[in-house]
């Protein structure tokens, strides 16, 4: 885990969220206070996420999970989520939440997350809040 946004994570997020998906507001002030996960293979960046404290005590937020196209379908995303779950537990969190793109909700469900609340729009893309109880 990194305390500042590593260059590899920035590259992945620019590629996936900005170039591929068209999001305009990719980087924000949360990046300054978040911890950042970066998965590499043979020294090259593969995937990333950020983790930060939620507004409620004991809740952490997982965000900006992204995997470069050549690595999708090869369990890189699952590895990143498991790393985030472990990091949230190590921080003493009892719950991990995320704001998933609706099309990715099933992926998160397979890793123990449950959807709650209404579907919301984020830059034209439907998103759903999901959470996982940490044991």
Assembly level = single chain
Report the end-to-end length measured between terminal Cα atoms: 21 Å
Radius of gyration: 14 Å
Structural class: alpha+beta
Give the overall pLDDT as a whole number. 96
Strand content: 35-45%
What shape does the CA trace take? globular
Q: Catalogue the unreliable spans.
A: none
Main sheet properties: 6 strands, mixed
* Structure annotation, total helices: 4
**SSE order:** HHEEEHEHEE
Strand order of the largest sheet: 1-2-3-4-6-5
Strand tally is 6
* Share of helical residues: 25-40%
Description:
This protein is α+β, with helices and mostly antiparallel strands. The protein contains four helices and six strands, in the order ααβββαβαββ. The chain has helices at 7-20, 30-33, 76-90, 105-109, and strands at 35-41, 44-53, 59-67, 95-101, 114-122, 125-133. The chain has a six-stranded mixed beta sheet. The longest helix has 15 residues, at 76-90. The chain is globular. 30% of the residues are buried.
What labels would you give this structure?
4 helices, six-stranded mixed β-sheet, single chain, 6 strands, 135 residues, globular, alpha+beta
Summarize the SSE layout with pairings.
Layout: H1 7-20, H2 30-33, E1 35-41, E2 44-53, E3 59-67, H3 76-90, E4 95-101, H4 105-109, E5 114-122, E6 125-133
Parallel strand pairs: 3-4
Antiparallel strand pairs: 1-2, 2-3, 4-6, 5-6
Short description:
The protein is α+β, with helices and mostly antiparallel strands and 135 residues long. The protein is 28% helix and 38% strand.
């Amino acid at each position: 885990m990194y305390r500042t946004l590593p260059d590899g994570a920035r590259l992945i997020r620019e590629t996936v969220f900005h170039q591929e998906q068209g999001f305009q507001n990719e980087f924000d002030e949360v990046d300054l206070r978040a911890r950042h996960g970066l998965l590499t293979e043979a020294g090259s960046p593969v995937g990333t996420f950020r983790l930060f404290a939620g507004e409620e005590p004991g809740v952490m937020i997982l965000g900006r999970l992204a995997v470069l196209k050549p690595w999708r379908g090869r369990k890189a995303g699952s590895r990143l989520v498991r790393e985030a779950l472990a990091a949230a537990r190590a921080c003493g969190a009892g719950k991990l939440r995320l704001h998933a793109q609706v099309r990715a909700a099933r992926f998160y469900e397979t890793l123990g997350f449950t959807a709650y609340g209404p579907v919301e729009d984020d830059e034209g893309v439907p998103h759903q809040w999901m959470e996982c109880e940490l044991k």
